[in-house]
Amino acid sequence: RLSRRGRTIIFSIHQPRYSIFKLFDSLTLLALGKVLYHGPAKQALEYFSSIGYECEPFNNPADFFLDIINGDSTAVAASKEDHRPVDTGKEVSSENGVAEDNVDSSVVDVLHQKYLNSSLYQSTKEALGKVELGRGSKQRVSKQGHEITYANGFLTQLYWVSKRSLKNLIRNPQASIAQIAVTVILALVVGAIFFGVKLDRSGIQNRVGSLFFVTTNQCFSSVSAIELFIRDKKLFV
Questions:
Q1: C-alpha span between 209 and 68 (Å, rounded)
Q2: Pick the residue with more confidence: 45 or 176?
Q3: Residue limits of the ABC transporter family G domain (predicted)?
């Protein structure tokens, strides 16, 4: 329902079953930092069948792909007779720093090379080439001048951040009510202290003192807003 309203939804599915997997439009398989397949999900089984990896009946395609990458399927076992591993060194995952012992680098190299020789890779490469040609002139201009690191301008960012902050303020009124109460009490205290100040030299000094006190208080109270930037920075990044 949210996606139909124009929202982008990102979520993680661990070991999806077939009823979920068949809903996928495109599929990208990665292992040890190399692309093993990228294309329509419906053509994935046909592609692996064409390079000699047949999916067994009643086997979940998602599990079948993992088995191929990990070297656990019967198709990989048969293929190992033809492709002897040259170097089965351990690869360290950049995500969690754990050595990936179960991934055979020789199998990954073979699958990656077969993908590079496939028509799927050629079509993807041509599509990316057209995109790069279209952006080539724009990138040269941006590199010469000031390089823009954000997709949107300052006013757009300010609008959406302000809108988000306003929604948080409306949805969590307790904090704002407390701030208003503190400000009103402080105003009454300061007003009571400096009430009825006369228009003479001491009165001018009292007014300067009151203005200094109010300004200092406002400056120190606004420092607490820095916490919001620190807390929400990771979310925005």
A1: 77
A2: 45
A3: 14-81
